[in-house]
């Protein structure tokens, strides 16, 4: 639906348009209001889709905005938001990088008693590839936490860890750090993760192990966020749900960092193909 805003209610985050001579109201979810409401005022052109449900506010039912396609001020002419342009820009950004590093971490989890806690990386999985190309190299291994850290029962249960095997096979953080530095120096890749947790865990690891940061947040692509922006998803999408949607294959999630890194590459490839 493409219409000019006739009136607004700033208190209720509702805007009104005229449909068949009748003033009709549309409300925004908190998520949409946070992003778009400051652009909405009388005379602004909005192109949007309507959600199936309606909401009663002060005894009046309003339609819910599912997502916006465009938000444009007409006087002066300013394009505040254009979903099609956003999608094209997204595709252009993703295509310009020569190498990608798909990386995933499993982290320690707090025990069941309350208290301060910082997750530590205890498993890494990664895949290096060219854009939509074959895998150049891949690896996955356990990473030993700092000496003062004990694996909680919750961590071992969730990751199905054999503690003895973990400590026998695990590599010291310094070896992981050197491995990551080697990959970055050799390929200068764009790092691809699914969600912000992996970025936060890596940043924390530099501090916990007193190492100079090898990465900045701008070096990463959050593939989950791209999916939410591209498809206008209201809620987070699980990595394996995305994989099943693209490939129509049920993949069992074993909470293994290497498996997750490989699946992230598959989802990335499918996403790129879909955008074409």
UniProtKB/TrEMBL annotation:
Quote the protein name from its UniProt record.
Answer: Uncharacterized protein
Which Pfam family, giving just one, matches this sequence? RNase_T
> Which Gene3D superfamilies does the annotation name?
Ribonuclease H-like superfamily/Ribonuclease H
Q: Cite the SUPFAM superfamilies for this sequence.
A: Ribonuclease H-like (SSF53098)
Per the record, the domain of life is Bacteria
Citing just one GO molecular function, the answer is:
exonuclease activity
> What species does this protein belong to?
Mariniplasma anaerobium
Q: Which CDD domains match?
A: DEDDh
